[in-house]
Amino acid sequence: MTGDQLRGDRTAPPTNSAYLDYNATAPVRPEAASAVLDTLRVPGNASSPHAAGQRASALVQLGRSQLAELLRCSPNELVITSGATEANNLALRVAAPDGGQLVVSATEHPAVLEAARQIATDQGCDLTIIGVDRDGQLRLDELHAALNSPLPTVVSIMAANNETGVLNDIQEMAELTRAAGGIFHTDATQLVGRLPLDLSTVTIDMLSLSAHKFGGPQGVGALFLRRGLPVAHRPLVRGGGQERGWRAGTLNVAGIAGMGAAAAAAQAQLDIERERTAQLRDRLEALVLAALPDTQINGRSVPRLPGVSSMTFPGAPADAVLSGLPEVAASDGSACSSGALAPSHVLLAMGRTAEEAESTVRFSLGHATTKAEIDFAAEQVVSVVRRVKEAMWVS
C-alpha cells in the first residue's frame, strides 16, 4: 500500500462493520499518518548537531509544541515517553516520597494501580486506595481523610475512566491536594483530545497521556511535569540524557510528529467532535434500550466522556456476546488487561456483582465514527444478546 493510500481521505466504513473500541486505540487520523510518513523520509537523530539532526530536532519541537498547545502548557514541561503506562510509572516513581503516602482510586487503570503497589513497596510508602460510589465517582470523604495524614502525600486520580467513561472532577481534587501540601497526578489518557483541558489554569502537577487514544500513532505519549515541582530525579530509563535527563533514549521522531499532528487535529475539531460523538453515543444507547429495556448503562447518571457507553446485559455473558459480534469491535473491559479471568475491578468497585461485571460490554466512539456504524452495531448487538439470553435460558 502506498503512502498516498495510507493517508487518503477519511471515508465512512461499510455498513457491515463498526469500530467501537476507541478507548483501546483510536484510528490514526489522516493528519497523523501524513506526518509520520513524511518524517520517516527525513534521516537524522534529533540529538545530532549536523544539519540532518537539526531537521529531525525541528520536527520533534514542532510535535512537542502542537501537543503543548492542546494541553495549554509549556513545551518544556513535557517529557516524551512510549505512552501513558510509562508516563504513569515515571510520575509515581519520581513524586512518591520515601516513607510517605500514595493515594489512588479503586478504579484506576492497572498502569497506575500496579505501579502504585510496587512503588509503595520499593519506597516504603503507605498505599491508600479510595473507593467510588455506584456511579463510579470518587468518595471525596475518603480523599479528605487521606489528605489529613501527617505523611507527605501524592494523589493519583484518573480524569476519565477507561471502562465506563465516568469523569472525575480533577480540578477539585487537585485543589484539595495542593491545599494539603501534596502533589496531584492524573492519568488523563482517555480525556486528552476529547474534552477541553487547560493546564495553565488548573492546579494539576503531573498528567499522563498516550497519542493513540486521540488518533496518533501507538508507542508514543508524554508526561506533563509542571515546572519547579519538587520531585526526585528517578528516571526509569538512564543513558544519554535526553528529555532533560528524565527519559534517556533516541527520540521517536516519527511518533512525536504523528502525536503532534493528531493533537493539532483534535484541538481544531474538539467542540464539533465532542457534540457529534455524544449524539452518536446517545443514539446507540437509545436503540439498544428500546429493544432490550433491562440493559443497564453504567455511570449514565453522572458526567461521562461523550463517546463511551458501558452496557450490562443481564443474563448474557460478555464473552458470548462479543464472540457473536465479529464485525463489531467492542470490549469487555480494558484492552490492556485482556485475557484476565477476573471480572472487571472497576465494576466490582462500583458495587456490581461478578455476574453483572462479566455481562458488561464497553462501546467507545470517536472522531471517525459514523451513524451507519451505530445503526449497524445496535442491530447486531440486540440480535446477538437476544440469542445469547435464549441459549443461556435453555441451558
Describe this structure in words.
It holds the Pfam family Aminotran_5. With 395 residues, this protein is an alpha/beta fold. The protein has 13 helices and 12 strands. The strands form 3 sheets. The protein has a 7-stranded mixed β-sheet with strand order 2-8-7-6-5-3-4, with helices on both faces. Strands 9-10-12 form a 3-stranded antiparallel β-sheet. Helix 2 packs antiparallel against helix 8, helix 3 packs parallel to helix 8 (253-268) and helix 9 runs parallel beside helix 13.
Question: In short, what is this structure?
Answer:
This protein has 395 residues and is of the alpha/beta class.
Main attributes of the structure:
Aspartate Aminotransferase, domain 2; alpha/beta; 13% strand; 12 strands; 7-stranded mixed β-sheet; 395 residues; 2 domains; Aspartate Aminotransferase, domain 1; disordered N terminus
Please report the total strand number as a whole number.
Answer: 12
Distance between the termini: 48 Å
Radius of gyration (Å): 21 Å
- Write down the CATH class of the largest domain: Alpha Beta
Secondary-structure element string:
HEHHEHEHEHEHEEEHHEEHEHHEH
